[in-house]
Amino acid sequence: MADAAPGDGGWDPARVGVLIGTGVGGLGTWLEQSGRMLDTPPRPVNPLTVPKAIGNMAAATVALDLGLNGPALSLATVCATGTTALGIALDLLRAGRCDVVLAGGTDAAISPLMSSAFDRLKALSRRRDAPRSASRPFDRDRDGFVLAEGAGVLVLELAAGARARGRRPYAKLMGYGEASDAYHLTSPDPDGKGAQLAVRGALADAGLSPSDVALVNAHATGTPQGDAVEARLIDRLFGSHTAVTAAKGVTGHMLGAAGAVEAAFTALSIDDGVIPPTANFAERSADVPGIDIVHGAARHAPVPFAVSNSFGFGGHNAVAVLGRA
After folding, report:
1. Cα radius of gyration (the chain)
2. Helix-strand-coil percent breakdown of the chain, rounded to 5?
3. Is the dihedral of CA 84, 89, 91, 97 positive or negative?
4. pLDDT tens for residues 36-93?
5. Has 316 been annotated as catalytic?
6. Cβ–Cβ contacts within 10 Å for residue 148, how many?
7. Of 5, 161, 273, 280, which alpha carbon lies 20 to 30 A from 145's?
8. What is the pLDDT of residues 99-144, one digit of tens each?
9. Among the options 98, 253, 295, 316, which is catalytic?
C-alpha cells in the first residue's frame, strides 16, 4: 500500500474497489465467544461478535479505513481464494467498473479445532519433532501441509493511471483462469482435469502458450496426492524447460491468503529476475516427474512470464498469469 501511495490524491475513491476473500472467516471470534457461552455460569458474548466474525468484514474494514466507495466484495474458494480475488479484480478493471482494485485474501485459522479437523482428514504433516522441515513440497518424504496464517493484498491499477501518478508496477496481471474438478469434496481429480482447464484458460486469456512461461509458482502444499497431481500437470503442460518453485516450504499453508501472497512473490520474481528455492525439497518422490524444481539456492534468471497456481477443497482451481510490466 505504501508503494501504491493511495493518499497522493490520484485515486477517485468511487473508482477504487476492494476484493478480499477468506477461506474460513472469523473463526477465532466464533470459537472465543462460544467458549464464553459454555462457561459456568455462561457469560454474555461480545456485542461486536457478528461484525468481527463474518467473512465480508475483510473487505469492509479496508474500505472503511481507506474511505473507498467502489465495490467492496468478499468471496471464498478456500485455498484458491486469493487467486480468485485477483481474477475477479482483473475482470472489474477490464469491464471499466474500477480504475484500481485492492485484491487478495486473508485467514487466521490456527486453533485446536481447525488443527484437529485437518488432522482427521490426514491433511497435516506429522513431523512435530521437526517443524521447520515439516512442509516439504514435492519431496519424497512429504506427508501433509503445515497450517499457517497470513494476509496478502495486491494493488491492481490500470497502467495509464499508474503512469500518470508516477508509480512503478512490479508486474502485469495478464490473465486468469478458473475451473472446477467436479470430482470430490477434498481430493483433487487424479487426472488434473480442472487444474489443466484453469491453466489453459489463464494462458489463453493472457494470449500466451506454455512455451512462453519461464516460471510456475506451484500450489504444492506438501500433501502426497495433491503434489503428485500438480507435478504431473506441470510436466504435461510445461515439461522440464520451465522453472518451478513452491513457497509453502517456507510459509506453510495460509489457506485463503496463500494465492495472493504467492502472486506477490511471483511478481517480485519477475521484477527482480530471481526465482526463490523450494525449501525442504531434497529428493523427488517416484510420483513426481522430472520437472525443474528450483531448490538449494535461488536462481538468477529473467522471468518474462509466470504462472501462479492455487487449488482448493471442493475442486476449486484458480490460476493467474503475470508478466513484466
Report:
1. 20
2. 40, 20, 40
3. positive
4. 999 999 999 999 999 999 999 999 999 999 999 999 999 999 999 999 999 999 999 9
5. no
6. 20
7. 273
8. 999 999 999 999 999 999 999 999 999 998 899 999 999 999 999 9
9. 253
Copy the grid coordinates of residue 63.
474500505
Residue 263 CB coordination number (10 Å): 27
Cβ neighbours of residue 22 closer than 8 Å, sequence gap 6 or more: 55, 58, 74, 76, 81, 105, 106, 107, 256
- Spacing of C-alpha 275 from chain mean position: 17
Q: Which CATH number fits domain 6-323: 3.90.1150.10, 3.20.20.70, 3.40.47.10, 3.30.750.80?
A: 3.40.47.10
DSSP letters, 45-89, are: PPTTHHHHHSTTHHHHHHHHHHT--S-EE----GGGHHHHHHHHH
Asked if 79 is an active-site residue, the reply is yes
Is 98 considered catalytic here? no
Of 98, 219, 295, 316, catalytic: 219
Give bridge partners of residue 16 from the DSSP assignment: 100
Sign of torsion over alpha carbons 49, 52, 56, 61: positive
β-strand pairing of 274-275 with 299-300:
antiparallel
C-alpha span between 274 and 19 (Å, rounded): 29
Using DSSP, state whether 151 is helix, strand or coil: strand
- End-to-end, the C-alpha distance of the chain in Å comes to 18
* Contact in structure between 221 and 227 (CB atoms under 8 Å): yes
Beta bridge pairs of residue 323 = 172, 305
Q: Enumerate the H helices of 100-209 as residue ranges.
A: 112-120, 159-164, 193-206
> 23 in helix, strand or coil?
coil
